[in-house]
Amino acid sequence: MASSWDERKLVTELKAGNREAFERLLDLYEDKVYGLVHGMVGAVDADDIAQDALIEICKAVVSFRGDSSLATWVHRVAVNVCLEHRRKRHPLFVPFEDELAEPDPQAGPSEALERGEVKGSVDAAIGSLSDLHRDVVILHELQGLTYAECAKALGCPVGTVKSRLSNAFVKLRELLQSCTVEGEVAI
Amino acid sequence: MNCLRVSQEMKAYIDGELRPWTRWLVTCHITSCEQCRREMEAMNELTNDVRNVQQVSAPDGLRDKVLGGITFQPVGHAPRGSSVMRGLGTAAGGMVALVVLAAIIMPIFSRARESSSRARYLNAQRMEMRAKESKSIGVASDYDTRVMGKVAPSEAAAPAASARLLIIKTADLSVQVRDFQQTNDQAVSIARSVGGYVTDTSAESDRGVPTSGSLSMRVPVSAFERTLNRLAKLGRVTSRSISGEDVTGESVDLDSRLRNLRAEERQYLDIMNRAKRIPDVVTVTNELSRVRGEIEEAQGRLKYLKSAAAMSTINLTIGEKAKTQPRKSSIESTFGNAIASLGGTLSALASLAIWLLVYSPFWALPIALWLYARKRGISTQQQS
Lengths: 187, 384
What we know:
By secondary structure, chain A is mainly alpha-helical.
């Protein structure tokens, strides 16, 4: 039954305070919001901030005017909660404590390029990006938002999203290359 | 289009976010430039790797915590209507709550005064039953508890009159400047001069020299326009947008919620003073800590809204104008540049020829027809 609800009906039901509608909203966005928050504030605070973000989304949905899609709005609210958390914690705090995954000196070059390790190092490299770069990579590549939707969610112009993403990928490539080079040296 | 520009547009090209004309220019370039083609393939591969990163899933129990943190409308309760209707609803709810509260609490108090231990036991049982009831009913009882906390309907309707307009203003400004570092310093001093402060800064450098970056600042709302205008004068403005979020409604809601919660707290304190048995004290203590937690949460949010509305946010993006590279004077480099330019021109011409050939049905046929018609016209004139 719930799967046949379209967005407009869902929003109407949410505004009416229907519990089933909130469950449907969580079906749709719980994992996405958690993934976004996990990326933006780090694993340590992810549970608490994701909870805050989802409660904020559920509470603020009454003020959703339909200017953008529900998905974009949900991301925007979640991004704002994460940014607020960052501001409260420390203005210039880098949330990821993980260092770039060091390649295992025991493993040979072919093993080091196994898919799993590439994924792991890509993940670590994303974690090593600056906040601004990481936010846009998470929103566009992992959450699947378009440039325009990212711009709305982050509250910045589309051109900024484009340049940040481009720069982020240049950084990512540098990080991954340096990781590989270090791995080779270690071997 | 040169290699530098192509490298800037590469990511957007892969994401399909370029305009058709720019996309065509990039396509033309990468068909002729081996190095850029390789870069593009590497970028494409990296994009796929990033998209294949395992996404984390929400932990078990998050859903229940979220649903537990929301107040739902009880079954059959109409959705939020106009403020007048809401006001009437709240007033009526408050009246009913008052009567119910009096009916339940007064006997407890009166019997609590009695010295009979049997009476105390019965009262404790009733309190415990109510506590259990409120937990098991869940959705509806949460609403009831809030209504129960409301003392006087007039008090609940009061904040609407004293509402002050609260708007959170945010501006995004992008400027292009000659010297990034100097402009960045100027922007920071502008923020300080109007009583604001910088919250976030970031800079991207090229060969160790910062060339672009962004900074977020919070400035008093009274100085918002003035600051924005001063910042706009720092360089050539490439984009400027201002947005405002009206949070007056939320602040009014929070005000009234806070008032109700404080009333509830006072009532529990009163009950606490009269409670004599340990189970009663424990029950009331639990309720008190819940109410105080909610009060703190509402106060925090209200404080945030007020401070956010008092200080506006300006996100400034500063980009340095591309500096022209000093020309190499050596004959070799000139010769090399000329050859590269010739290669580029030839490849562009070749691309153009291919496009013209592919689109020939659209232009060759009309021209052939026109020539044929012209020829026939001339021959007819000669005959006549």
